Amino acid sequence: MEFGKLADISQVNWSLPSDDKGNESRLGKEKPHTLYFGSPAWAVKHWSGKIYPKTSESSEYLHFYSRNFNSIELNTTHYRIPTLENAQEWKSVVPKEFKFCPKLHKDISHDRVGLLDKKLLGYWTSFLENISTHLGPCFIQFHENFSYEEKILLFRFLESWPSEFRLTIELRHKSWYQNGIILPALSEYLYRKNIGLVITDVAGRRDILHSTITAPWTMIRLIGNDLDPSDHLRLDWWSERILEWTKLGLKETYLFLHQPDDIFTIEFSMMANQIFKDKGFAQVPHFYLQEEKDLFSFMPKE
């Protein structure tokens, strides 16, 4: 089963946690803010006839993806470190403001030896250099069994991380969030290192949902549920929270929008577009449908 997925979401408490009191001091003062929308993939055939022309080849998908979304949660890099040729090809088809946010390779994030392997980290950072100006914050998604007991491994990895590349970490074990003791101290450490902390909002793991900002940017992974009414509600709540953070000095928000099998990601993203525009955000990513249709016209008929 996918991380945090529930078959029945009817009893989920979707409320967001109260804002971390340390955010104000860590963010400083109000600055210009950039809002990024992204999904975990661009090679999605379901989007043919939505944001991709029906006649388009898969090799053209990134071009059309980047004319709608302005970032991507680059999950493919979790399984394979792209070549220089891959990076050059990707950069050649996206607009100058587009950002790739790569997930660290699993041989680093899911391997205790890999976390401390400087040679492997060197291969990874070479790829980051190849992405150059199109690089957003990358993120390391630790295994859900990676607990606070392994904190020394975490800190050794973070101390070895080259500061010229922005990093955000995703911790999935409940021990990092329990009792309100560990997270505050960890947050201050990450703030001093200019490292972000991923916010993951998913139905079955409300225990790891937090509202802590440790860098001038934040990365939110919002996992929807086939356009359930709660998806709209959560987008609305997050738009309000992010708006509050922009007033405290948040510079960038990377909102990665997930739906099961990516089928309704475009509809979810269009929903986000309308909600964030209504809240007064500037330069909200816009979605260009191949045919003018109602937001929910792609929904299956009952």
What do you see in this structure?
The chain is an alpha/beta fold. It has a single domain, classed as Protein of unknown function UPF0759 (TIM Barrel, Alpha-Beta Barrel). Helix content is 31%, strand content 13%. The protein contains nine helices and nine strands. The protein has helices spanning 23-27, 61-65, 84-93, 106-109, 118-131, 151-160, 182-193, 229-248, 265-278, and strands at 34-38, 71-74, 99-102, 138-141, 167-170, 196-197, 199-201, 217-223, 252-258. The strands form three sheets. Strands 1-9-8-7 form a four-stranded parallel sheet. A three-stranded parallel sheet has the order 4-5-6, with helices on one face. The protein has a two-stranded parallel ribbon with strand order 2-3. Helix 8 crosses helix 9. The radius of gyration is 19 Å and the shape is globular. The mean pLDDT is 94.
Query: In angstroms, what is the radius of gyration?
Result: 19 Å
SSE order, one letter for each helix or strand: HEHEHEHHEHEHEEEHEH
Stated plainly, the CATH topology is called TIM Barrel
The order of strands across the largest sheet is 1-9-8-7
Q: Helix- and strand-based class?
A: alpha/beta
First and last CA, distance? 26 Å
Rounded mean pLDDT is 94
Query: Ranges with pLDDT <50 over ≥5 residues?
Result: none
Indicate how many domains the architecture comprises: 1
**Describe the biggest sheet?**
4 strands, parallel
Q: What's the level 1 CATH class?
A: Alpha Beta
Helix content range of the residues, please? Answer: 25-40%
- Within CATH, the superfamily carries the name Protein of unknown function UPF0759
Strand content: 5-15%
